Structures are given as C-alpha cells and as structure tokens.
TrEMBL record:
Membrane protein topology class: Multi-pass membrane protein
GO cellular component, as recorded: membrane
Designated name of the protein: DoxX family protein
Biological source species: uncultured Rubrobacteraceae bacterium
Places the protein is found: Membrane
UniProt xrefs under InterPro entries: DoxX
Keyword Membrane on entry: yes
C-alpha cells in the first residue's frame, strides 16, 4: 500500500508542478484570459498561482510539509473554479461545456487534495 501512495503522490505532485510551470511559460496568454474574467492584477495572479502550484506539487511529491502543500493546492483550486471556470455565465454551448469540465476537474482535484490531508503527517517515503 505504501507503494501505491507513493505512486499516487508522484502523479498528483507532478501534475501540479507541470501546471505551475505552465503558468510561468504561458503567463502572457493566461493573464489575458484571467483579465477577461475580471481578475485584478491578472499577470501577478497568474505568476503567484504558478508559485502556489509548484510549491504545492513539490510538497506532495517530496512529502515535505504535505499539509501546507495540499492547502496551497486547495486554496488555488476552489477560487479558480468559481472565478475562472464559471460555466454558468457562458452562453456558447461549446465554451460552456469546456468551462464546466474544468470546473468539475478542479473540484475533484480539490477533493483528492483534501482526502490526502488525512494521514499526511505519517506518509511513508518522504524527505521530511
């Protein structure tokens, strides 16, 4: 079972690390989209959330301060779901469907992060 937890942590952590790196490499495009959703300080918000994602992902991957990392992930996912992926305001059916998928994916990831908090202080195979 410890091996399964480690594999899950690797997959979960790498997902958020890559997402955070994407915020840095595509900050211009992402900040334009965030601005269109009325996010104040869109560029700084994209870069700041990129930092949250990388730190949260590394925390889960390495097992260093895992509760802090999981909180960073949840604090990113929940507001992003409501502010950026607010599908209920989108008129175009195709765009609405895409936003709804991202909204639900974020909620599922937040749920997984919250579930991982359970027992995080005793995770095996960590650096912390």
């Amino acid at each position: 079972m410890e091996l399964l937890l480690l594999i899950g942590r690797i997959l979960f952590g790498v997902f958020f690390i890559m997402s955070g790196i994407n915020h840095f490499t595509n900050a211009g495009m992402m900040s334009g989209y965030a601005k269109s959703k009325n996010v104040p300080g869109a560029y700084l918000a994209v870069v700041g959330t990129g930092v949250m994602l990388v730190l949260g992902g590394l925390s889960v991957l390495l097992g260093l301060f895992p509760v802090v990392g999981l909180v960073l992930i949840v604090v990113f996912l929940l507001p992003t779901s409501v502010i950026i992926h607010n599908f209920w305001t989108v008129e175009d059916p195709q765009a609405r469907a895409a936003e709804q998928i991202n909204f639900l994916k974020n909620l599922a990831l937040a749920g997984a992060a919250l579930a991982l908090v359970y027992g995080a202080a005793d995770w095996p195979l960590t650096l912390g």
